[in-house]
Amino acid sequence: MRETPTLRVCALYPDLMNIYADRGNLLMLRRRCEWRGLGFELAGAGIGDALDPDGFDLYYMGGGQDRDQELCAADLHEQKRPALTGAAQRGAVVLGVCGGYQLLGHAYQLDDEELPGVGLLDISTTRAAGPRLIGNVAIEVDLPGAEGRVLAGFENHGGRTHLGAGAQPLGRVLHGHGNNGEDGREGSRDGNVIGTYLHGPLLPKNSWFADWLIATALGDGVVLEPLDDELEQLAHADARKAAGL
Ligand code: GLN
Asked: What pTM was estimated for this model as a whole?
């Protein structure tokens, strides 16, 4: 008999990088697997912990304040970067939200210090002197199999992120600020490595995206049964309405 497919998730720095609903995002992945009879396993990797490059289907790094990012950036860069790079190369999903997104890039430049990133996304972030970019945000994504779908969320970041010349955004800003409030781009994606400023909570508000992540992480051969998403879709429609779409 075929083993039940199991989504194995590793949360990076779950005690530090967990601002704004990151635990809810993980819970959403758990529930949507369990409701379908799929397995779900969650592990965490904090400062000083070894990271297994082969043991997980999805690596998740949530948001954090600048000081939380300062605490984990060196460990991420020096200790976990090779494993995370290896995981990305074999096609595992790596999802970074806000502070986690910033650290998937080359660097996050603060006033007097540059935090190194893991360089999985060709992006760089600078902490601007101006106001934080805060508010509801909606983007139209460019994801394989989900072209044109909308992600709704909430953003709150001081950093301004710019994409490298060949880098792809995750989507086009329909409402809100996005990467830097200027170029109309939001997030970034390179294969299955995805970063976004959308908290919100991201996955409960966008159940289709939770399923996209689960399906991509589990790979070919796993078909996700549809779930009753009426409530999520209503909430999504409300979020779109609030954003004036
Ligand atoms: N500290 C980062 C910034 O302000 C990320 C914030 C966040 O994760 N919400 O830009």
From this structure: 0.96
